[in-house]
Amino acid sequence: MSDASYATDLAVLLDGVSMFARRQELPNEEDIKAMLLAAIEYQVENDVPLWGADIMNMDLPPVIADVGEFGDGKFLFYSGVFNLVYGPPGAGKTMLMQSVARTECEKGNTVLWLEVEEADWRPIKSRWEELGGAPDNLAVTLIEKLPKRKLDSLVEFIETYDIKLVVIDSFGELIGKLGKNANADDEVQWVYDYLTPLVKTGAAVVIIDHPPKSDRSTASGSGRKIARPWSVFAVNADCKNEDDDRERAFSKTRAGYARLKCIKARGGNHNPYSIVARLNVTPMMTGGIILELVEDSGEDEIDDLIEENRQYSVELTAEQKVLQYMADGTPMTGRIAKEICGYNNMKQGDELLKRLAAEGRIVWSRFTKTFGLPIVTIQ
To answer: What is the pTM of this model?
Structure first.
């Protein structure tokens, strides 16, 4: 019996049952439909194959891109499924997701960040301090291990607080902590299956990953990593060489950007292998960083941005670079001053720091043998 004939027979059967139900004052058509859906759900739970007609009658929530807004009604990530972001170290993957998380929080949504890479709260706090502080409706947890009871508690937390976005940073470390091999297809598939309760909550689950050292155009390890997610984006994967990396590089004292290439969009909201968005990173003279996720308008705009970045870097004097670096309380040494100011030797860095100390703009600590900010505001 073909699927088509079964669908036809099922439709005739339902019409007959519906007519009989009306004559006998039995359950109406809505009740019949509910009974059918319950039968389909039973089949799914018990791994019974579904006929085509059953598939078409399934009552499934739509999968829509509604997280990670970067333009007028344009979004990067889908709710209720896995999404993947990968790129080389320092490309801006975590900053991208910080920007997305902050935007969701500003909309009134709640975000859960699963931190797998860090085992210390200090870098996490510092990372959010650079952006002006962590939102009140952002929850962060350190993942040292993820047994089933911990996963169940996370699912309960997501449902209790109606979490809109879940960020996992990062995939390779999580796979290792689950005792699996990132290069084995079946073990990567097992990890996705294990994490499926997270997406069943309806939240958008975005996983951060790294590319292999030999090829930044794909995620590291098994190809199954990009097979399961509905959307996959590569950060700065279109950089052809180290010069491209340097043009885009950003730091506490240098503006830069990261481009997002769409590798996969199962929902069809983006063209695969096209650059769709850009994360602009702008350090502030008063300290901190501004992140802006925007639609990417092509190479002409990028050329202008590169030139603006050059001008921004040139306009920052050596004194400003040092003071901005220290704005969050980070101590300064002659060696660090040499690096951030581009001096040829450490002596030049020491001379700059001594001059700033003589002006009262920074202070020397004989206990730690470093320069720090005075208690008063930077002059």
So the answer is: 0.69
